[in-house]
Design brief:
Length: 349
């Protein structure tokens, strides 16, 4: 059968490349009537170039839509401005807002954020790290997952700063929320209101943050002399809040108040308590969450919760990257951001 007339695949690729052709420094030099090196000096911070030459080059660059090839510069310098943000399920809950805040803070710094959406297995995390090392990323910020020792070792052997948020890792810089302080305050707030049958809704995921919140609440409640029941869903999400509620409200006397390890768990628990069990919040049971994601302020929840400020935590992480790049041999830093309790309708003192 004869072939139909029309562009071949090679022809399509050629046209696509032509459409994607970026203005070059040589074109800027030709239009401005200067040397190629003058263009390079114009866009190199601190380089010497005559004011008249600079003006001609900038005018030509603007006319052509020219931008410096930062990726090529990074290859030549054996380092880029890329910063990896490594997270498991970065679209979920507080992590989504933290990832967005990190991206904004890094761009303001002049860095290029790269989001690596990875699992928690060693193979997945090491694959992510190889990508970042291969692209000469100047730092890695880990939001979730449990990086193996080899992951950290690769970063250090390549001189790459490593910042972890919400967990502990040897030889890395840390940013964490005041989980223990907040959880003790939650237990004290319930106890001060006269509640003696308390509960905590947590998760089997057993991340360091979830464990720290649960353990601190249990220890404080025991110190106050209150009884505490524990419900744990599989993960740290809305469905797990429903699972935790089923566990907590099917055991004898129902709790007076529930502390939830994060807001997504609180949302699931609150919906089950009200829609399925027909109980009222806060008249029949009080609820405190953790994170203060935007949904906490919605009329459907009006959740009293501890606020983690993603903007503050992101800036602390970026500051640690700067600190490590400036002084690679400093001991690990530990930044702790204490959450504020935001009162809404689900609990009032």
């Amino acid at each position: 059968m004869p072939m139909k007339d029309g562009p071949t695949n090679d022809g399509k690729k050629t046209k696509r490349k032509e459409r994607m052709r970026f203005a070059s420094a040589d074109q800027v030099a030709q239009l401005a009537g200067v040397s190629r090196s003058a263009v390079s000096r114009t866009f190199t911070p601190g380089a010497s170039v005559a004011p008249a030459t600079r003006e001609r080059v900038q005018k030509a660059a603007e006319e052509l839509g020219y931008h410096v090839n930062d990726l090529a510069r990074g290859v030549l310098a054996n380092q880029s401005r890329l910063v990896g943000i490594v997270a498991t399920r970065p679209e979920v809950g507080f992590r989504a807002h933290l990832a967005a805040a990190l991206a904004k803070a890094l761009i303001k710094r002049g860095s290029i954020p790269i989001l690596i959406n990875t699992g928690q297995t060693e193979d997945e995390l090491l694959a992510a790290q190889k990508i970042l090392i291969g692209h000469r990323a100047e730092a890695t910020i880990i939001l979730s997952g449990s990086p193996p020792a080899s992951f950290v070792d690769i970063a250090h052997r390549n001189g790459q700063p490593l910042v972890v948020i919400g967990r502990t890792e040897p030889d890395a810089d840390h940013v964490s929320a005041g989980n223990a302080e907040a959880s003790r305050n939650a237990a004290a707030a319930f106890f001060d209101k006269g509640y003696r049958r308390l509960a905590v809704a947590a998760s089997q995921s057993a991340t360091s943050s979830i464990l720290e919140r649960e353990d601190a609440f249990l220890a404080a409640a025991e110190e106050f002399g209150a009884s505490v029941s524990v419900g744990r869903g599989i993960d740290s999400d809305y469905d797990s809040g429903i699972d935790a509620a089923r566990q907590l409200f099917s055991r004898g006397e129902r709790p007076d108040a529930v502390y939830c390890a994060n807001d997504l768990i609180a949302f699931g628990l609150m919906d089950h308590v009200r829609k399925t069990l027909g109980l009222r919040i806060p008249e029949d049971v009080d609820v405190i969450g953790f994170d203060d994601v935007p949904g906490a302020a919605w009329l459907s929840y009006r959740l009293t919760t501890f606020r983690q400020d993603p903007v503050v935590m992101a800036q602390r992480a970026v500051d640690l990257v700067e600190r490590r790049l400036a002084s690679p041999d400093l001991p690990p830093a530990y930044e702790r951001v204490i959450p504020e309790l935001i009162f809404r309708d689900s609990f009032t003192p």
